[in-house]
TrEMBL record:
<dbReference type="GO" id="GO:0016620">
    <property type="term" value="F:oxidoreductase activity, acting on the aldehyde or oxo group of donors, NAD or NADP as acceptor"/>
</dbReference>
<dbReference type="InterPro" id="IPR016160">
    <property type="entry name" value="Ald_DH_CS_CYS"/>
</dbReference>
<feature type="active site">
    <location>
        <position position="247"/>
    </location>
</feature>
<dbReference type="InterPro" id="IPR044086">
    <property type="entry name" value="LUC3-like"/>
</dbReference>
<dbReference type="InterPro" id="IPR016163">
    <property type="entry name" value="Ald_DH_C"/>
</dbReference>
<dbReference type="InterPro" id="IPR029510">
    <property type="entry name" value="Ald_DH_CS_GLU"/>
</dbReference>
<dbReference type="InterPro" id="IPR016161">
    <property type="entry name" value="Ald_DH/histidinol_DH"/>
</dbReference>
<comment type="similarity">
    <text>Belongs to the aldehyde dehydrogenase family.</text>
</comment>
<protein>
    <submittedName>
        <fullName>Aldehyde dehydrogenase family protein</fullName>
    </submittedName>
</protein>
<keyword id="KW-0560">Oxidoreductase</keyword>
<dbReference type="Pfam" id="PF00171">
    <property type="entry name" value="Aldedh"/>
</dbReference>
<feature type="domain" description="Aldehyde dehydrogenase">
    <location>
        <begin position="26"/>
        <end position="470"/>
    </location>
</feature>
<dbReference type="InterPro" id="IPR015590">
    <property type="entry name" value="Aldehyde_DH_dom"/>
</dbReference>
<dbReference type="InterPro" id="IPR016162">
    <property type="entry name" value="Ald_DH_N"/>
</dbReference>
Length: 473
């Protein structure tokens, strides 16, 4: 049986019949991949009730048995990695090659293994003869995991893995744009997990998601997506005081200091901005470059961009794909068209690529952009990078900090101490030096300001899906 045959079989396990489901298109070609099941609020209520009923027994297994099951689940993902990657590539649009679909599946099993084995032990705070205070961590109950369409599998694992490890059960609500790959991932995981520990709920409308956020039996909501939707989740969760981890929109700034080597940093800058064709929350989305090396950086980036093939994700060699959906395509087109109308310099790209498909947009570098341009101030979430010239690093720091977002930022320099001094003044959850968007399961990750709150990854991520209990006396 070929890889494609296996992928079809896995899809058939999770998709609905055409007459009862919602057609999901191939992001590159527009052809129908399969049919997503449609669930109602009543279906969600049933899923939450089942997850709540299954949770005590799952928690009672203890860390050792849960860890063993999660490690077996990671093995199952690895066994199905190629067929999951092919389905992901078609549904989301990202190519198989490069830091894309196969890379994402590798991240799924890596994060799952790290969450399964990270140690979170009780802590003795005071230890007097008659005064012992110990901090312990217990499961919260049922976690609602609401995911995005840009990294649908890996972000689902970021939400699912720590929650399950700590003894919670999880109800998953994938994006309506990428439900099939998430359903397939959950199906693979449920080959190993006990019944009702992990339950997906899929719907093409917002009613089910709104009910999940406000459900009285949901103890924690984990959400990755736009700031606007995040605010609605905060409001909806108020009635039951569900705990929240929100990873919201970013418009990450990068600052290139005058001592940087343009050739040495060009590829890092490119992938910081254009990984997943720019559709990444913590991608580099506005680049501030010192006047002394401005043109050299622009030219070096343009040379890298010219080498990066774009096309159908299933065709070997492509590393850039389409915008996942028509709505996002229109956002990118509007912002680039506006930059052109303002007289900004289109260095590369600047237009759709209809010969590749309806939602492909050329890899675009826009030089001489300015703060206040919509392409600079709005999160483009696509393959278009504005480059802004500065002469005083104080102005660059002020520009980087001026927007109400703070997911990530970066500083690029040949002097690490100088870079760290600037990094310490940037308001972002993570500030990278000479890279952008590089994440690791052992390093906490989260945003500030309008980019959300709460930490994921590492032991801090386990604490975020736990109930802290102090035993004193």
């Amino acid at each position: 049986m070929t890889d494609i045959d296996v992928a079809v079989t896995l899809l058939d396990r999770v998709q609905a019949l055409p007459e009862t489901g919602r057609a999901i298109p191939d992001a590159a070609t527009g052809e129908t991949i399969g049919y997503a099941p449609e669930h109602t609020v009543a279906d969600l209520d049933d899923a939450v009730a089942r997850a709540k009923a299954a949770q005590p027994a799952w928690e009672a297994l203890g860390h050792e048995q849960r860890t063993a099951l999660l490690l077996r689940t990671a093995d199952a993902i690895d066994a199905h990695a190629e067929e999951l990657a092919r389905l992901l590539s078609r549904e989301q649009g990202k190519p198989l090659d490069g830091p894309n679909a196969r890379f994402e599946l590798g991240g799924c099993s890596a994060w799952l293994r790290e969450s399964a084995t990270a140690e979170l032990t009780s802590q003795v705070i005071t230890d007097g003869e008659n005064d012992i205070a110990e901090v312990t961590y217990r499961a919260l109950g049922v976690v609602g995991a609401i995911g995005p369409w840009n990294w649908p599998l890996m972000i689902a694992i970021w939400q699912i893995a720590p929650s399950l490890r700590m003894g919670n059960t999880v109800v998953v609500k994938p994006s309506e744009y990428t439900p099939l790959s998430v359903l397939a991932l959950v199906s693979v995981m449920n080959e190993v997990l006990p019944a009702d520990v992990l339950i997906p709920v899929v719907s093409g409308d917002r009613e089910v998601g709104a009910r999940l956020a406000s459900h009285p039996d949901i103890d924690k909501i984990m959400f990755t997506g736009s700031t606007a939707t995040g605010r609605k989740i905060v409001e909806a969760s108020g009635a039951n005081l569900a705990r929240l981890t929100l990873e919201l929109g970013g418009n990450d700034a990068g600052i290139v200091l005058p001592d940087a080597d343009p050739q040495a940093i060009a590829e890092g800058l490119f992938w910081g901005a254009f990984i997943n064709t720019g559709q990444t929350c913590a991608a580099l989305k506005r680049l501030y470059v010192h006047d002394a090396i401005y043109e050299q950086v622009v030219d070096a980036l343009a040379a890298i961009a010219a080498q990066m093939p774009m096309g159908n994700g299933l065709d070997g060699g492509n590393v850039l794909g389409p915008l996942q959906n028509a709505k996002q395509f229109e956002i990118v087109k509007r912002l680039v068209d506006d930059a052109r109308a303002r007289g900004r310099r289109i260095v590369t790209g600047g237009a759709p690529a209809p010969e590749l498909g309806a939602t492909f947009f050329q890899t675009t570098l826009v030089a001489d952009a300015q703060d206040g341009d919509p392409l600079v101030d709005e999160e483009q979430f696509g393959p278009a990078l504005p480059i802004i010239r500065y002469t005083d690093v104080e102005d660059a720091i002020a520009s980087a900090n001026r927007l109400d977002v703070g997911l990530g930022a970066s500083v690029w320099s040949s002097d690490r101490d100088a870079a760290r001094a600037v990094a310490g003044r940037l308001r972002a959850g993570t500030v990278w030096i000479n890279s952008h968007g590089t994440i690791h399961p052992k390093i906490p990750f989260g945003g500030v300001k309008g980019s959300g709150y709460g930490l994921e990854f590492s032991v801090e991520g386990l604490k975020a899906v736990s109930e802290t209990r102090v035993i004193a006396g």
